[in-house]
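Our working data are protein records whose layout never changes between entries. Getting from the letters to the tokens is the skill we practise here. To make this concrete, we reproduce a full record directly below:
***
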Amino acid sequence: MAASLAKIPELSGIMTETALPDGLLSRARITFTLGIVSVMTLVAFEAFATATAMPAMALELNALGGYTWAFNAYIVASILAMVIAGLRCDERGPRGSLIIGVGAIAIGSLVAGFAANFLILVCGRALQGVGGGAIIVAIYVLIARAYPASLRPKAFSLLAAAWVVPSLVGPLVAGWLTDTVTWRAVFWVVPFFVIPPLLVMFPKMGALQGGEPSAQFTRRVGAGVIVTAGLIAIQDGLSRVHAVGLIEALVGVIVLVMAAKYLVPAGALRLARGLPTTIMMRGIIAAAFFSAEVFLPLALVETRGVSYTIAGLTIAVSAVFWSAGSFTQSRLSGDSDRAPIVRLGALIVAGCLFSLPLVVLT
């Protein structure tokens, strides 16, 4: 296993630490290291594979009109789960949130895989979102408590690397399963692989105790619920073509902005210099990129008649260049001015997004 991990480019320099008695793969930490990498890899696989399989789902369940709900249900539920799991992890440690997260994503996958109609599938996707949000937060807290400060940067590098292989393999596997078996198989396989890593980590997680209860628990959970309601109103309003839908979407935006200030750093909503702007720009650019990626397989299948495997290949290619861009900027000098890089990246994303409709339709 160590030899396989060492072959991933993002892990250069990490494996030298594992030979040390207190390294990432030392006897005391190998269970956590392999467990968090395995769980995060499977969460990433589910995220990338779903986008490839969803067009087939929409056609079979006659759900093209509500196609975006299959993705938005996941995102909205994961945001709320992240808020609650973050507060609970601070108070009680990461074990409970990780167990609930793995259970939710496993059950949600089965519900979605066996869905007889689109509403049931959306409910399954929401359960998956709860699981994904809780798992990500729990793993971040686990790294903070199970590893010393000197190893945390390398542990987070492993976590980032865990998204590389699924981003390349996930869409192709999902496309092949959809073409040769059924889109439902993409969901069926998830529980069989996501539960074993949890069972391996579980015995050692009892020692990771929580801290003091958060005085902001009620306020932040309430804000998370309101943000969730705002996102649902925006999505539902934009799906309507009359004035009522526009009003609903505007109300959702207002509610979202009012509640979000309790969940993001001070100054983020007004793009204050420094960390607030960095966080907002990262969210905006990523949202634009992945929102377009959601529709790309559907557009290719519907307008070009390509196979689901080829549609998945387009997602894998974008993941290759995403990784290449991340790798390139990480090798820049620490004293380099990053602002021009952000501007260039935003321009590239915007240019590609504007050109996609022309490429798909011509």
User: Anything to note?
Assistant: Residues 2-216+262-361 form a domain with the Growth Hormone; Chain: A; fold (CATH 1.20.1250.20). Residues 234 and 250 are 7 Å apart (CA to CA). The chain has two domains: 2-216+262-361, 217-261. Confidence is low (pLDDT under 50) at residues 1-20.
